[in-house]
Design a protein that fits this description.
mainly alpha
């Protein structure tokens, strides 16, 4: 199944807009429970419970590590030191290009203050990353780079490189052979 470029772009834009609006929705809503939950309150509950859990999956050792990712970010939307080899020549297990998302999610979590300010962060909590324009620009650029270069044929998800499939070895985009 092939995703059209415009559908993919529209979906990406919708997801980014939704994620960007959630903190504002959360800030504008009362913390008192409503007698009849609305879709907006469901979204707020989901945001408040899931985002910290997601952030915990990407531990950070403080501002120093976050600064390394900021400083290793290139103007083309990539991080230095990340192997972006794709397709049939890419490693199948523990695909190195996934590190792009580890760095990006970690920076996004710091930007929205999803990390706990406790002893798991060395020296000081990354308060200077919260709402920081540079962190936002890096995160946005990293996501834009990935989505602009991602695969568009769903066969690449599980059948990349398979003979007779729609995602042959020469298919462009971020994918690797699935074991």
């Amino acid at each position: 199944m092939m995703l059209s470029t415009s559908r993919w772009s529209n979906a990406k834009t919708a997801v980014v807009a939704l994620l960007a609006s959630v903190p504002a929705i959360c800030a504008s809503k009362s913390s008192k429970p409503s007698s009849s939950p609305s879709p907006a309150s469901d979204l707020i509950s989901l945001y408040k419970t899931r985002i910290p859990i997601i952030a915990e999956g990407y531990p950070v050792n403080g501002s120093e590590q976050l600064n390394i990712w900021i400083n290793s970010f290139n103007s083309n939307g990539t991080y230095s030191g990340v192997d972006y080899t794709t397709g049939c020549t890419a490693r199948t297990a523990n695909w190195p290009a996934e590190v792009h998302w580890v760095d990006t999610v970690s920076l996004a979590a710091a930007y929205i203050d999803a990390y706990p300010h406790n002893a798991s962060l060395t020296d000081k909590a990354p308060n200077d990353f919260i709402g920081n324009a540079t962190v936002k620009n890096v995160t946005d650029s990293a996501m834009n780079y990935w989505f602009a270069n991602d695969f568009t044929d769903l066969d690449c998800l599980d059948d990349g490189g398979t003979v007779g499939g729609n995602c042959t070895c020469g298919t462009p985009g971020f994918w690797n052979e699935n074991w």
